[in-house]
Write a structure and sequence with these properties.
Elements lengths: L2 H19 L2 H4 L13 H23 L3 H25 L3 H29 L7
Helix pairs in contact: 1-3, 3-4, 4-5
Protein name: DUF4267 domain-containing protein
Organism: Amycolatopsis sacchari
């Protein structure tokens, strides 16, 4: 199993917990705050749910007990980030927020994907000659 993937899982847990506790950390840069800077109840609910999802996927990456389980957990993380990039890229209220959100989600998906590929590549061995 990959130590790098475990560390990415721990980082994901930290990010998820931070936005679950302080939804403004995600909502403000995404342009989801009200004009007075407050957050609506629905925005808080959505951001806390995203944070909880990130905590769960991060724990799965960090605590996987087999390489296969770690691959699945990392795949879930990548799919979540790609989904975030698509959703935020299409729906956030302003262009700058869309650009930042797509960049952040895509970068995290890429880093997690590279960690998964690296682990699989390190695990691969050519078959012995006949």
């Amino acid at each position: 199993m990959s130590v790098i993937t475990r560390l990415l899982g721990v980082a994901t847990v930290g990010i998820g917990a931070a936005i679950a506790v302080r939804p403004g950390l995600l909502a403000h840069p995404c342009g989801l705050a009200e004009p007075d800077g407050s957050l609506s109840r629905s925005t808080k609910t959505l951001v806390v749910a995203i944070g909880a999802r990130d905590v769960a996927s991060g724990l799965a990456m960090a605590c996987a007990r087999s390489p296969e389980a770690q691959d699945i957990a990392t795949g879930v993380r990548i799919a979540s980030d790609v989904g975030d990039a698509i959703n935020f890229g299409l729906t956030l209220p302003n262009r700058d927020a869309r650009r930042k959100a797509v960049a952040a989600a895509s970068a995290w998906a890429l880093v997690c994907g590279l960690s998964r590929l690296r682990r699989q590549r390190c695990r691969w061995r050519p078959p012995p000659p006949p």
